[in-house]
Amino acid sequence: MELRETSARDLDKFIEDYLLPDSPFRDRVNEAIHIICSFLKERCFLQRGGRPVRVLKVVKGGSSGKGTTLRGRSDADLVVFLSSFGSFQEQFDHREEFIQEIRRQLEACRAEKVFTVQFEIKKNMAVMQSHNTAVIQSHRWGNPRVIRNPRSLSFTLSNKSCWGCPQNGVEFDVLPAFDVLGQVTRDYRPNPEVYVRLIRECEGLGREGEFSTCFTELQRAFLKQRPAKLKSLIRLVKYWYQECKQELGHPLPPQYALELLTVYAWERGSRDVDFITSQGFRTVLELVLNYRGLCIYWTKYYDISHSVIGPYLRRQLQKPRPVILDPADPTGNVGADNPPGGWERLAGKARDWLTYPCFKKWDGSPVGSWNVQI
User: Fold this and answer.
1) Which of 125, 210, 134 is CA-nearest to residue 171?
2) 116 — phi, psi (to 5°)?
């Protein structure tokens, strides 16, 4: 069943039948995550330069960590926090060395036939280390170009004995990070000095959003505790986004921006644990249509009254629209229209989609939307 052909009243069934992960899928992904987490903690960083390197923790991020995974999209982000990073600057300066080491150890495991890994090139992400450089796909979808200091290493893990064939592998992005937060509890609110330090290291150096991986646990907590039906709506919006991305073939706003936009729509327009899915879906697409007016932020984790954080936050909110600030990292404007035109392309698809059956009632009249302030 195509989403565009699904009626508004059948959207919940579409989500259940096609988007929610089933048990075999979850088991396969969880097993793969366990394998790589064990590898990172127990084998990968035994020693460096004569000094032991400790893995402080490995945190599952991305859709797997937030509980918004789409069926069939077997990917996982793992942020590995290392004792060797004592500051944001040290992470920036030395993460490439650790990415190279992760790759070397993965290749050693492959040679020993512990498991099978295949290194990949992904569009718009630095993913492959070779001779102190990284290969990244060009924004114009042409030949790969070479850049330095990538943020992550991407590979596919296959285990034939467990999953039957290499095509059933799980894709990973592994990202080394500085443990600025330390022990994180459910209602954790960082010491304001964490954000003061972040702002001072980022502002003026063009590094805003550079260290969002350090706040993965807060990003995950922001979404993970949400109602199940809101997570289903996020899955639906992500599926729609992937459909648009496949059709357009051009750079679009980051998917994370659409996830946050969905949370904002629900917070301001509903807050019910059981809502009409088509209305929520329509509200999100209408917000996309009105992207030029979006200015969205949360203060769950940072204090707007602080003498440093408050003025910085106001400077962020004065930037060209759309502004969607990462709730865990005030330096990260995930709504920034970069490269230019991404929001306009996505808005064009939203305009088309609002005429489709998934936004029509049984009598052909349009479904309503939530009353959400731009």
Assistant:
1) 125
2) -110, 130
Euclidean distance between the first and final Cα of the chain, in Å? 33
pLDDT in tens, 264-318: 999 999 999 999 999 999 999 999 999 999 999 999 999 899 999 999 999 999 9
Q: How far, CA to CA in Å, does 114 sit from each of 25, 46, 93, 264, 342?
A: 22, 18, 31, 44, 42
Q: If we measure between CA atoms, which residue out of 347, 187, 367, 373 comes closest to residue 267?
A: 373
Sign of CA dihedral 353, 253, 369, 18: positive
> Which tokens belong to 75?
């990917």
What is the amino acid identity at position 367?
V
The C-alpha atoms of residue 281 and residue 235 are separated, in whole angstroms, by 11
Tokens of 315: 């400077």
Measured between alpha carbons, how far is residue 284 from residues 124, 237, 259, 281 in Å?
Answer: 25, 8, 10, 5
Please write the tens of the pLDDT for every residue from 143-178. Answer: 334 446 788 999 888 765 444 434 567 889 999 999
Question: Nearest CA to 110 among 31, 36, 30, 34?
Answer: 36
Tell me how crowded residue 110 is: count the other CB atoms within 10 A of its CB.
17
pTM (global) more than 0.85: yes
Query: Average pLDDT in the 120-130 region?
Result: 39
